[in-house]
Each structure stands twice: as structure tokens, then as C-alpha cells.
Amino acid sequence: MENVYLFFVLALAFLAIADLIVGVSNDAVNFLSSAIGSKAVSFKKIMIIASLGIALGAIFSSGMMEVARKGIFNPELYYFDEIMIIFLAVMITDILLLDFFNTLGLPTSTTVSIVFELLGAAVAIGAYKIWENNQSIVELINYINTSKATQIILGIVLSVFIAFTIGAIVQWISRLILTFDFDKNSKMISSIFGGIAITSITYFILIKGLKGTSYSQTTFDYFNGETINSIIDKNTTQIIIYLTIIWSLVSFIYSEIFKSNIYKLIILIGTFALALAFAGNDLVNFIGVPIAAWQSYEAWLSSGIPADQLTMDVLSSKVETPTLILFFAGAIMVVTLWFSSRAQNVLKTSIDLSDQGEIKEKFKANLLAKLLVKISASTNSAIQKIIPARIKEEIDNRFVPSNQLLLSNTIIEKPAFDMIRACINLIVASILISIATSYKLPLSTTYVTFMVAMGTSLADRAWGTESAVYRVSGVLNVIGGWFITAIVAFSAAGLVAFLMKFSLYFMPILFLLTCFLIYRNYLRYSEESKKIKIEKQILEVEKNTVKGVINESSKNIQNVIKRSRKIFTITADGISKSDVKLLEKNSRQVTKLNDEVDQLQDNIFKYLKANDKANEKATQLYLLLLEKLTITTKNLDKISKRTLKHVKEDRRKLPLSNIKVILNLDNTFDNVYNQILNIFEEKDYKKIEEVLLKIIQSNEEIQEEISFYKDSLEQKNKYDVLHLDILFLSSEILISLKELLENFYSINTSS
Is there a single domain that holds both residue 525 and residue 552? Predict the structure, then answer.
């Protein structure tokens, strides 16, 4: 029997590593979004700073491990065999749940997951014991640490509203003082802001946060043998005043003497602090349960008592986590941070919802979002009427975004928001999380950081009239996902625990199923990533020069042509076989391509609007080429949709004569597309003339076909009408390709 529980421990160790990887992929958004969104410093620097924060935070997390042992349930009422079932059920459920949300690209809470999984599994085993012993269901309440569990759950729920409100208030006040043109403020104002900001971070992370760790009991002879805790408690006011003065002076010297940007320094320190707070608060979510299981196993081995008779009082006592384990866990988190592509997917959702500018909204509007926006707009209008016009005008002027949000030498590589908002995001989130950590409350870092970011976005007027509904819908979707997380975590963990309690034979089955699902999801995600890399989303022009336009546009043309070739072939194949599913899938792909090209147009118009230093000639050339690509994709989209509509309405196959012509048309386009691709892949632009002749010849053949059908249209059936539509649109595509190549050739020759 001993081997069974050894297998439990080994399985939990494996799941702990898997959970660390999946968990960090989910939670990286918490401490990276502000720094990356502001583009204050390079991505590499951000990652290095975040890695250092995680490594140090992992060491400080020891005290939080108690939550996994006794924070949710009363361990003394469970036997060793039951405890091991609870822990394994929790880890299996946690990995599958987080992996699912990561795949969707939505940030969820590892804290909420682990809390409700522990609660669900403990309730399930408790209910099973009550059923076995013919006890009243009322006894179930005794198995749960209701006071602590309620405190944790309330803390998590309230954090959503507190984080949003505080983030909004602090951002509004900061923006009112500093404005969007913060670089023009006096060095004194910037230095004071830097002093307050860095003091807030250092005090709450390195001092207040330290109180929640084992290091807080360290004594100092200089302070008459007092511990760190007592020193902090007795000198709080003095510490804050001294730190503010010191950091304000440092900020002044940093900006005045070294001529460096103090806001960038705040962002780097804030990123470090938030990564540290994340590791200190959330590491328990990943390894707390396996460590508790290992400690339980050691206690059982030394006791000599059967597994179904040993009560787990040992988990009620305070047990320090070995530093070596914390170091190892921190190392896995750091490695995952650097190499996880899923982290980037989750990261995008948070940044998009905070973007100061207009973006392609990821979420659709819903009725609740529309209602909330309408109520907010009405309330705001009522408040505006009360405020004197002069004061209102002065406030509005301080909230006008500057052109600093668009970089002078790029078209799309702009920050989602400025450095002031990034600073506030980091400061407020760090403080709230570290306060919770010092009180041993596993506050959801995801909830806090996300809602702080949403609060600062609202205060910064990033949610405009047009985007507000979509942004609010996005926030509601994410919050809804959080509540779903709690319900699913509770139910799934309870079910898994019940099955293993009913029969231990379910344990290896569920464990192997978990491994299989993780591996399958990994393969799926890898395949999708490879597909994206092959397909490559069309690139933005980042060079403000004619040469840059030529280089980047050639890449765009390659990508559009490559995908167009595939789309046209699938369309021909789908219409020939009357395959609805194939055509539906193809329609989604062409819509995606069409949207990407539209996005390119939107971005360059925004760029021109905000940047008066744009190279006029380069921009005109780019717009010209983009116009031709747009015509190509629009017509391709029309062909796809019309063929799909036809097949949906008439499931019969096209006559053989029509199929033959369509397949010939596909061969023509395949030939043209391949020749164009060869030109741009080899960068042999001299061959453009040869391809132009081929396009002209192919279009003449299509025009002859069109003339034939037009002359006898009255005799034609609906299949021929569809055919005529395809021919017309195909001709338009060839014409746009011809003009595209002509323009590109002339640009390249003249440059």
C-alpha cells in the first residue's frame, strides 16, 4: 500500500511542474502587460527584470503555503488517504482548467482555481464520509474552514471592485496633475512623482510584503534584538517619510544629472515588484498542494498508522517549505516565462482592452455592456452640467492624448498607452497584492492587475464613444470567465475526488487522461503556431522611407498572394464537390485575410492623422499598393461568399461543363499566383513584365468567356449565372494584380 501513496506523491510532483508551466503561461500577463503595453523599454530588459522578480518572490512565498494545508478545510477531520485524494483531484482539475483558458487566450485566476478546487474536493470527500457514516448533511460545515475560506473568497470578489475603483481614482488624479505631456513637466514634479511611486513600491513589496514571510522574525542587535516586524510596526511613518525623501532625491539626480527618463525607471522597478508579488502570492497555487501532500506522506511514513486511520493534524501546524524547492520552482517559472508562446496570447487580450487608440476590437457588444455604457454616459452628462464650464474645459485639456502615443518612425509599433498609465498600473497592483500577501490572503493577482488596468483605462478616457461598448463587453466576458472558473473548478474537483474515493482504480485512469489531454492540447497549439508562422499575418510597414515601403510591401504581397492562391483553389474544389463545410471553413479564412488588409488601411490613416512628420511620398506609395491588395481580397471574399451561398441553397453538384471551366480558371490563377510568388521570393523584379503579359492574356481569355455567357444569358440556368459572377470577379482580381505589379515595378525602378 505504501507504493500506492508514493505514486501519489510522484504524480503530484509531476503535476506540480506541469501546473507551474501552465500557470505562468496564464499569469505572465499580470506583471508584463503594463511594461510591454507602454513600450517604455525593450522586451528583453522587461523579461530580465521580471525574471529577477520571480526568482526573489519565490523565496518569499513560504508563508503562503499554509493556505493549501489548512486555509480552506479542516485537515484534522480527514484521514491521510482522503487528503491525498483531495490533493490529487485538485491538481488534475487545476491543470486542465488553466490549460483550457490559455488555449482560448483568456486570463483566468490561478488563485480562484486552486481555492475552489480545494473547496470542491474537500466538500465531496466530506459528503462521502457523512454518507458512509449515516450522519446529517449539516455536519458538512465542520469539514470546511468556513471563516478562513469566507475571508479568502470575499477578498477575491471585493478585489475586483476595489482594484478597479482605486486604479481609476489614482489614474485620474495623476493625469490631472501630470497630463499626457508629462515630459514637459518640471524636473521637480517628475522627481516628486518618482519619489512617491518608488516609495510605494519598495515599502509595500520589500517591507510590508516581508512581514508575511519567515524572514520577518529575523532579529538585529542594533535594534536591541527586535524583529523586522516590530521595527516596521514601530517606525512606519518615519520609514515612509525617509523613503519618499531619498527616492525623490534619487529621481531628481537620475533625471537631471544622468538625463534619463524617471518614468522608465519606475516601470522597471514596478515590473520587478509586481513579478515579485506575483511569485510570492501565487507560487502556492502551483506547488502548495504537492508540498502539503509530500509533508503528509512523510508524517504517515513516520507514524506507522494505517492510511485510513491517520488524521492529518500535522497539516494544522506551521511547517516551513524548504528553500531548495522554492528555488527550483522559481527556476521553472522563469524558464516558462521566456519560452511560453501561450503567455503572449493571453497578454494580448489585456493590452487590447487597455489600448488608448482605436483597435480592431476582439469582443462583440452585448446588451449588458450597452446598458452599462448608456447609464455611465447619462451619469457623466449630468455631472458635466454641474461643473462650471471653465473648470470643465481646463480638465478636458489635461486629458487630451499627445502624439507621443504614436512613434515618429513607425506605423503600428506604437504603445497601447503611455508611461504614466503603466506606472499607475504597476504601483496600485503591487500595493494591493503585497498588502494581501502580508495578511496571508491569496488575492487573485489576475483579478487585481486586470481590473486596475481597466480602471486606469476608463479614467484615462481610453474607452471612447465608439469603443466603450466593445471594451466593456470584453471586460464582462473576462469577469464572466472568472466566475465560470469558480463554478467549474468546484464541480470538477469534487467529481474527480468522489470518483477516486469511490475506487482508487480511477486514480491512474484520471492521471493518464490528464497527461494525454495536456499532450494533445500541446500538439494542437504547436500545429496552430506553425500554421500561423507559415501563413504569417501580413506585416505592417514600419519604415518611413520609400525603400522601407518596397521591402515591407513585398512581404505583404507575398503573404496575400500565397493565401489567396490557397483560398481560390479551395473555393474551386468546394464548389465542384458541393462541399458546404469546406466552403464555410474557406470563407472564414478569406474573411480573416480581408480583415487584416482592412486593418492595414486603418492603421496607416491613424498614423497620418497623428504624425505630421510622415514621409509623404512613402505613404502615398504604400497606400497605392495597399489599395490594389484590398481590391484583390474584396473580390476574393465575394467569390467565396457567393459560392457558399449557392451550395447552401442548392446541394446538387454543378454540371460537368461548369465544373470544367471553374477548374480551368483555378489552373490559370494558380499559374499566375505562382509566378508572382517566385518574383517576390527571389526579388527578381525584372520578371514582372513577363508576368504582366501572362495576366493580360489570361484576362482576355476570361473576357471572351464572359462575352459568350452574356450573349446567351437568357438561355442559361442559375449555375451559369453563378459562373458568370465568378468570371466577372476573377477578371477584377486579375486587373488589380496587374495594376499592383505595374505600380510596384515603377516604384522599384524609380527608387
Answer: no
The residue-averaged pLDDT of 138-159 equals 82
Q: Does 539 reside within a domain?
A: no
According to DSSP H, which parts of 503-615 are helical?
A: 506-535, 546-577, 580-610
Residues 145 and 168 in one domain: yes
**pLDDT for residue 253:** 93
Q: pLDDT confidence of 312, banded at 50, 70, 90?
A: confident
Determine the structural domain holding residue 375 and report its residue range.
2-531
Give the SS3 label for residue 311.
strand
- β-bridge pairing 226-227 and 219-220: antiparallel
pLDDT at 604: 61
Nearest-10 Cα torsion for 287, 291, 294, 298: 170
Residues 6 or more apart in contact with residue 670 via CB below 8 angstroms = 565, 568, 569
Q: Do 524 and 549 share a domain, yes or no?
A: no
Beta partners for 220?
Answer: 226
- Give the global pTM: 0.68
Give the DSSP letter of residue 73: B
Residue range 389-394: average pLDDT?
85
Count: domains in the chain: 2
Provide mean pLDDT across the span 627-643: 87
Out of 488-497, 511-520, 606-615, give the one with best mean pLDDT: 488-497
Which cell goes with 377? Answer: 454616459
Q: Are residues 558 and 457 in the same domain?
A: no
Name the residue with cell 474537500.
122
* Residue 566 resides in a domain: yes
pLDDT classification of 142: cutoffs 50, 70, 90: confident
pLDDT of residue 170 exceeding 90? yes
Give CA–CA dist 441/433, Å, rounded. 9
Helix (H) or strand (E) holding 720: helix 718-750
Q: Is the pLDDT of residue 538 over 70?
A: no
Task: Look at the block and give the residue holding cell 511560453.
Answer: 340
Burial of 311 (0-12, 13-18, 19+ CB in 10 A): middle
SS (H, E, C) 201-270: HHHHHHHHHHHHCHHHHCEEHHHCCEEHHHHHHHCHHHHHHHHHHHHHHHHHHHHHCCCCCHHHHHHHHH
Compare 240 and 722 and report the one with higher pLDDT.
240
Q: Do the beta carbons of residue 452 and residue 168 sit within 8 Å?
A: no
Residues 379/136, Cβ–Cβ less than 8 Å: no
Cell numbers linked to 68 = 493549501
E strands present in 379-474 = none
